[in-house]
């Protein structure tokens, strides 16, 4: 069967069944709506994530399909800025898990949460564990930028610690995907001073200490980095490299065996039989 659209909701149930029978990987884009400085719309994380997932499925319709994007994320620390939507942590975990488990009930066995928002991973990882612990399927969590640290490093002009949010990287990707919604004439650079050599935030690599703070305490522009260094050409390089590595991983992931669970505990004879 030829799958012509990257989005699973564009198919009927017979076709979805055929996708599960073909052991296709399900990409679940997990994002957020939040402010991204004066030059970008609030949908940056959603637009980037949808592009990466859709393009992966367009390039490899035999390999993967894309679930409806989950547009809301964890944002309590950003609520001092207009445009941010926040979902509480327990709701978010259950939402992620429920969506993924729904796919496992159709017969899909390889799930990937593709994340584009820096504050979602703890909740995605708990949801992925819940999927693995309660279903026969595998689940993985990927932050898109973590696939390409070397490619970011090769082409970026800002120093590490200067590309975190509405920055050179995110702005370049938006310029590549939808330039008409980017207002570069409003862009401002805002690079946080390094107050400890153990703390920095960056899409290429973060410092060893994860400092939790409310963003309104430390930032007043909504930008963390230098978007003035952004170009659509760099955005294309970074997007294409991400899509390439995501599809390479999915080729491995689809083949990765799901082994039977084992129970190495001592099971007393009077226990009524083994329980995993
Ligand atoms: Zn963002």
Write structural notes for this entry:
With 276 residues, the chain is an alpha/beta fold. The chain has a single domain, classed as Rossmann fold (3-Layer(aba) Sandwich). It contains eight helices and six strands. Strands 2-1-3-4 form a four-stranded parallel sheet, sandwiched between helices. A two-stranded antiparallel sheet has the order 5-6. Strand 3 (110-115), helix 4 and strand 4 (138-143) form a beta-alpha-beta unit. The model has no long low-confidence stretch (mean pLDDT 95). The structure holds zinc ion.
What's the tally of helices? 8
Strand order in the sheet with the most strands: 2-1-3-4
| Fraction of residues in H or I helices | 25-40%
- Residue windows where pLDDT falls under 50 for at least 5 positions: none
Order of helices and strands: HEHEHEHEHEHHEH
Q: Looking at CATH, which topology would you report?
A: Rossmann fold
In angstroms, what separates the terminal alpha carbons?
38 Å
Heteromolecules bound? zinc ion
Would you count the extended β strands for me? Answer: 6
* The CATH H-level homologous superfamily: Creatininase
Write the CATH architecture name.
Answer: 3-Layer(aba) Sandwich
Helix-strand category: alpha/beta
Number of domains: 1
The biggest beta sheet, please? 4 strands, parallel
How much is the radius of gyration in Å?
A: 20 Å
């Amino acid at each position: 069967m030829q799958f012509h659209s990257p989005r699973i909701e564009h198919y009927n149930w017979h076709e979805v069944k055929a996708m599960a029978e073909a052991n296709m990987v399900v990409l679940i884009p997990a994002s957020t709506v939040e402010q991204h400085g004066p030059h970008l719309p609030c949908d940056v994380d959603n637009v980037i994530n949808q592009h990466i997932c859709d393009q992966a499925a367009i390039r490899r319709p035999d390999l993967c399909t894309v679930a409806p994007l989950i547009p809301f994320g964890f944002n309590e620390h950003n609520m001092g800025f207009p445009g941010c939507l926040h979902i509480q942590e327990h709701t978010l975990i259950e939402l992620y898990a429920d969506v993924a488990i729904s796919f496992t009930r159709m017969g899909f066995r390889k799930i990937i949460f593709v994340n584009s928002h820096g504050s979602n991973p703890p909740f995605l990882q708990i949801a992925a564990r819940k999927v693995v612990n309660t279903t026969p399927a595998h689940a993985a969590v990927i932050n898109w930028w973590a696939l390409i640290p070397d490619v970011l490093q090769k082409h970026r002009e800002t120093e590490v610690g200067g590309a975190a949010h509405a920055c050179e990287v995110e702005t370049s990707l938006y310029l590549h995907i939808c330039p008409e919604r980017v207002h570069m004439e409003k862009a401002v650079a805002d690079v946080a001073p390094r107050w400890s050599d153990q703390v920095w935030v960056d899409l290429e690599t973060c410092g060893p200490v994860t400092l939790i703070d409310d963003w309104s305490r430390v930032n007043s522009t909504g930008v963390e980095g230098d978007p003035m260094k952004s170009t659509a050409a760099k955005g294309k390089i970074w997007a294409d490299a991400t899509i390439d590595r995501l599809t390479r991983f999915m080729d491995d992931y689809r083949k990765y065996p799901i082994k039977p669970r084992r129970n190495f505990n001592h099971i007393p004879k009077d226990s009524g039989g083994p329980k995993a």
